[in-house]
Design goal:
This protein has one domain. With 187 residues, the protein is an alpha+beta fold. A hairpin with a 5-residue loop joins strand 6 and strand 7. The termini are far apart. A five-stranded antiparallel β-sheet has the order 1-2-3-4-5. It has a three-stranded antiparallel β-sheet with strand order 6-7-8, covered by helices on one side. Helices cover 32% and strands 30% of the residues. The relative contact order is 0.16.
């Protein structure tokens, strides 16, 4: 006698194709989600890095401008030029007999609007070189970038000649931060 084989239940080809298609859709959705999260994380990290770099640049600018002679500061949109009192971090400030700081070099912070970089440059000189009017921006040839992605930079004197307002706008044209700071000069 012939025995009947027990029928085994199995998936059909159509059912297998539907399952594979659903799995591929879930996999592609997961990949898209993870890549967008990764991109958002990288963008946020870049913004934090830019802001940290900007804060450091503003602190350095405040320190240097705060140790300058307020009457000699030349400030305008996208640049500030002022006489500074120290040549490096090691050398102390020098003062005259009447208590005024001796300025040894001209320092310039300026925005290159084309690249969005805020740069710092200095012109070494003697005290007599610093006593005159501020030199032109074109004389500051050796530039070092202190902050990136700057949209606008402005330094303006307030009602007193020894107090200045710094305004920096950083980021993109549709998403940006504005940093405002006031600096008082010593002389």
């Amino acid at each position: 006698m012939l025995r009947r084989l027990k029928s085994k239940r199995a998936f059909t080809l159509a059912e297998s194709m539907v399952v594979m298609m659903l799995l591929s859709l879930l996999t592609s959705a997961t990949i898209v989600l993870l890549s967008s999260v990764g991109e958002r994380t990288r963008r946020n990290q870049r913004e934090r890095d830019n802001l940290d770099q900007l804060r450091q640049a503003v602190c350095e600018l405040r320190r240097e401008l705060g140790n300058s002679a307020g009457a000699s500061v030349s400030c305008s949109t996208n640049q500030v030029i002022f006489p500074a009192g120290v040549l490096d971090q090691v050398q102390p400030l020098s003062v005259t007999s009447d208590g005024s700081f001796v300025c040894r070099r001209w320092v310039c912070y300026a925005l290159d609007a084309g690249t969005g970089n805020l740069f710092r440059s200095e012109l070494p000189g003697s005290q007599t070189d610093v006593a005159g009017a501020a030199p032109a921006l074109v004389l500051f040839t050796q530039r070092s970038v202190v902050a990136r992605n700057i949209i606008a930079f402005n330094c303006a004197a307030t009602t007193t000649s020894k107090l200045f307002t710094l305004t920096l706008k950083v980021g993109q044209s549709d998403s940006f931060y504005i940093l405002n700071s006031q600096v008082g000069t010593r002389n």
